[in-house]
Amino acid sequence: MKRIITAVQIIGILCIACLPSFAQDGTGKVSGKLTDKKTGELLIGVTVMVQNTAKGAVTDVEGRYLLQLAPGTYTLDYKYMGYQTKSIADVVVKGGQVTNLDIALDEPKSKELQEVVIRGSYKQETINALYVAQKNNVSISSGISGESIRRSPDRNTSDVLKRVSGASIQDNRYIIIRGLNDRYNTATINNAMLPSTEPDRKAFSFDLIPSNLIDNIVINKTASPEMPADFAGGLIQVITKDIPTENFLSFNIGLGYNTQTTFRETRGMDRGKSEWLTLEDGTLKLPGSWPSSRGKYAPLSNEQKFGLTRDFNNTWGVGDRGKALPAQSYQVTWGNRTRLKNDGSFGSIISLTYRNSENIYEGERMDYESGKVRSFNFSEDINRFNSSLGAIANFTYVKRNNKISLKNIFNRILDNNYIYRSGLNNDANAQIMSHGQELTIKTMLNSQLEGSHKINTRDWKLDWNLNYSLTDRNQPDMKVLSYRRDLNASDNVPYEAMVPFGTAARNVSRFYSTLEEYGVGGMGSLTVPFTISGQKQNVKIGGQKLYRERDFSARVLGYIRTNTADFNDDLLTLAPGQIFDPANIGQNGFVMDEITNNSDRYKANSDLIAGYIQFDNKIADKLRIVWGARGESYYQYISTADASGKSIKKDMTFFDLLPSANISYAVNEKSNIRLSGSRTVSRPELRELSNFVYYDFVTYSSLQGNPDLKRALITNADLRYELYPGVGEAVTASVFYKRFKNAIEQTVDAGSTPNRRQIRVENADNAEAFGFELELRKKLDFLSAEPFFQNMTAFANFSYIHSSVNLVGGSSDGPSRSLQGQSPYLINAGLQYDHPETNLSFGLLYNKMGQRIYLVGFEGYPHIYERGRDLLDLQIGKKILNKRGDLRLNISDLLNQKFIFYQNNDNKKSYNESVDQIITSQRQGTNISLNFSYQFGLGKKK
Question: Which DSSP string do the residues of 24-38 spell out, in sequence order?
Answer without folding.
Answer: --S-EEEEEEEEETT
